[in-house]
Specification:
2 copies of one chain form a homodimer. Chain A contains 14 helices and 11 strands. Chain A is an alpha/beta fold and about 325 residues long. In chain A, helix 3 runs parallel beside helix 4. The first copy, chain A, is globular and about 50 Å long.
């Protein structure tokens, strides 16, 4: 029995990443209904918006779903309170110290998973007593680690420090990549980018279309001195890249960036002045289809790749 | 039958990367004798030195071995002439245009493989008529692509543009990672870093020991505006990193770098002022053992990981 399936009471060990501006109740419920684990991305939500999404998600699915809370945003405490008040039993935390909320959430009966990008944070997760770890490689979209460790090398590194249930993330958008993650020692996968380009994602249509056009080398890890984040190269990207090359201070950079650039790009569809967070795997995404179909395709690819690999003789 | 095994007439689809200062005749012959394909790294050799290595390698093994020639170094023409004069039948070219030498080498009966880091170069390889492609991800040590595409995402991207024999490189130092590469669609793997930390590698003992101490996040892709190269963070790295952050010109940077820093570090053992090229996978390398033992360990790990994966039920 797969440990992640058991932990969350799901059919397939596939988690849809909780992403800002892209993963509301529609996407999360679609993935959960299809047998994976959908996550509502609370990072871009005010507490009352998260509340709405939770209520709608419960109406849309009887299957388990969870909430992802990045701990760098304001109103984190209020977000956690919403989660607890609505009796949510699966919480993914990211971008912060797992010691801060894990025991409180577990006391309330939550399964707690924390996202890491290096072995040091993985060790902190063990100390905090999380139920599982997401290890996310450099190729992933959005926020990322300063170590720049890729999924191929990160999963074995994390496996050297712990045997607890491990979810691989970063660069996974197909059944082949899922099989590769399992081969590396993961129990399950977390998939972000591929689900952004789904019918149910709340990303703006222009952003979804841009993902389909994204090729090899069109994303780059940026803002390394503030919070590393993988972005599509556009005017916004070029602007901050030029500033970084001029060696401006972090404060100056933050001022120029201003606020709301992620919303402007991913949610409102400004493809040049907005911040467009997506993973390298975008280069192999070629259509916008329902989330359930994405999940079924991945499962089929996984099974057929597994057959191939099992026939592979040295 | 594995296409790479057939192409090179080898037992295992494992290629030892041709690396400057680390892979002379001792390492190449040890790997070939163990059933893989050893490569002499000609990038750090004068033509007469390469000649010596070829002669010694032929004495040390009756198995096939090859030569890697990075096409950015001086005396490339002389190196190719040495290769042809000594009737070498396997040539890996890298860091340059595959159109330049492929047909001439193939006319002489050579199998030609070119190393790429993006889909554009892979398409050029097809045009040039290479026999196989090495696709090398961002996590690899030494020279690298500007696209920063990781092995996990690069292999599927290359597979989308070609069906020719494909060798995955970057982040592969174990049988699990080898299995992951096969799952992603590769026919074989090229392994560098793991073989640098072998008894037969010509790397300085201090460098081999440094690899063992290397942890998560201790290497970084550097010199992005000259030729991107993955290095261990040391005084040399900090020096060039500071210059890059100040926004100095490429010419200024080249002047400060001077020559011979790679030799000073990897071959002469200066751990602070030398250039130390190694992949992220170094963080999971914990011993210096004979190359044949490394190969056997990888094979065993591969077989046992394969059994696990074949039992993995969704």
């Amino acid at each position: 029995m797969n440990r992640i399936n058991t932990l969350f009471n799901i059919k397939y060990p596939i988690i849809q990443a909780g992403m800002i501006w892209c993963s509301g109740w529609k996407l999360a419920s679609a993935v959960s209904n299809a047998g994976g684990l959908g996550l509502i991305g609370a990072g871009s939500m005010y507490p009352h918006i998260l509340e709405e999404h939770i209520i709608k998600c419960k109406k849309a699915t009887e299957k388990p779903f969870g909430i992802n809370i990045p701990m760098i945003y304001p109103q984190v405490e209020e977000l956690f309170n919403v989660v607890l008040r609505h009796n949510i039993k699966i919480v993914f935390t990211s971008a912060g110290n797992p010691m801060k909320w894990t025991s409180q959430l577990k006391d309330q009966g939550c399964k707690v998973v924390h996202v890491v990008a290096n072995t040091k944070s993985a060790k902190k997760c063990l100390e905090a007593g999380v139920d599982a770890i997401v290890a996310e490689g450099f190729e992933a979209g959005g926020h990322n680690g300063k170590e720049e460790t890729t999924t191929m090398t990160l999963i074995p590194m994390i496996r050297e420090v712990t045997d607890i249930p491990l979810i691989a993330a970063g660069g996974i958008g197909s059944g082949r990549a899922m099989l590769a993650a399992i081969a590396l020692g993961a129990d399950a996968v977390q998939i972000g980018s591929r689900f952004v380009a789904s019918v149910e994602s709340s990303a703006h249509a222009a952003f979804k279309n841009r993902i389909i056009e994204t090729g090899d080398g069109d994303t780059l890890l940026s803002l390394k001195n503030v919070v590393p984040v993988r972005l599509i190269r556009n005017d916004f990207f070029n602007e901050i890249h030029a500033l970084e090359n001029q060696g401006v201070s972090i404060e100056q950079l933050k001022n120029v960036l201003g606020h709301g650039r992620a919303k402007k790009g991913m949610f409102e569809g400004d493809m040049e002045n907005g911040e467009l967070e997506i993973g390298q795997v975008a280069a192999t995404i070629h259509n916008i289809i329902p989330a359930g179909e994405i999940l079924q395709t991945i499962i089929q690819e996984f099974e057929s790749a597994k057959k191939e690999v099992c026939k592979f003789e040295l």
